[in-house]
Amino acid sequence: MQSSQSGARPGLVMLALAMGGFAIGVAEFATMSILPFFSADFGVSEAEAGHAISAYALGVCVGAPLVALLSARVPRRTLLVALMAYYAVVNGSSALMPGWGGFATSRFFAGLPHGAYFGVAGLMAASLVAREKRAQAVARVMLGLTVATVLGVPLANVFGAVLGWRWSFAIVTILAATCAIMVHLLAPRLPVAADASPMRELATLKRRQVWLTLAIGSIGSGGMFCIYTYLASVIMQHAGGSAAVVPIMLMVFGVGMTAGQFICGWAADKSIMGAAAGALAVNAVMMVAFWAVAGNLWLMAPVLLVIGITGGLSTILQTRLMDLASDAPTLSAALNHSAFNVANALGPWLGGLALMAGAGWPSIGLVGLGLSLAGLVIWGIAMLDDAPRRRGIPAG
């Protein structure tokens, strides 16, 4: 449905949707950046504190399919407002939790609406533009998340250092509530498809290409999340940087992620699978570079910038899932964010294993390399599996 039909102004709608991405981005990535602060406050090791990040990622993985299926008949605007209102409440609870167990549990519940929000928001944005601009529309929604890494996350990190890490989640509460209001006021009232149903959404999971596309994201992006999770510790404990350097390096990473949405969105509208292969290959090279320069802040900065750019892989793969499941896209679009949060759990977990084994901080780059190469292998399998369809041969 185009904007002329819905009466919506695409620019304002995408701004409202991006505000939700901004809130989620601050919550997701700020938790990684303030890890040293809350681990010290709760008296747990940094490796154990990483479990809070994994708990959030698990919440995303569980919540995306559940919300998508249970809300198959709910209008998209109503669903988006409800998800952001819930996000405001649960992140507020994270700010108030007195103990480690309660805090980690609250991060699981905070992750539940994440995937469904981005999936439904991306579908709404794509419905307002021409087909050949879909990837760029999805990228604009995701832009809120990446701008959060440039502005919101460094600010949250400063708050964590000066006022206390709990203020980071208070900021998220305000942002999410603001998004809920904006979406309610600006988003179009799109009717629910007459044949929409949980079973129709589930039917899309019978397609191998959907699973292969999800696997590319869940494995291939793990290295990026591994680097981001332990970046503050690498800077302060290996590269000799002070706590004041951390927000600057996080901002560099965020600038790369923001640029990556534009670059990868544009590339995906040209060739979706070509763009995916390019992002994975560049990421693999940058993982080796990070391993080599982890002790030098000046050399680390440009490497982080490029790693951030490859984060645009999420936009690329979400656009592909829209094609693969065009008849029932909500579940597959939401699962794209589950896949990336599998990566968010897998990367830090494998990196933590390497660190606990005594491999040293630079080793997280080699962990990321292995994950990027595995993503490229899955990409190759997907291309081989899809070859008959691209040649016009009906699937058997």
Automatic annotation (TrEMBL):
Residues 13-387 form the Major facilitator superfamily (MFS) profile domain. It comes from the Bacteria. It is a multi-pass membrane protein. The keyword Zinc does not apply. Pfam families: MFS_1 (PF07690). GO terms for cellular component: plasma membrane. Signal peptide: none annotated. GO terms for molecular function: transmembrane transporter activity. It is found in: Cell membrane. PROSITE patterns: MFS. Keywords: Cell membrane, Membrane, Transmembrane, Transmembrane helix. PANTHER family: CHLORAMPHENICOL EFFLUX PUMP RV0191, PURINE EFFLUX PUMP PBUE. This is Inner membrane transport protein YdhP. The lineage of its organism: Bacteria, Pseudomonadati, Pseudomonadota, Alphaproteobacteria, Rhodobacterales. The gene is ydhP.
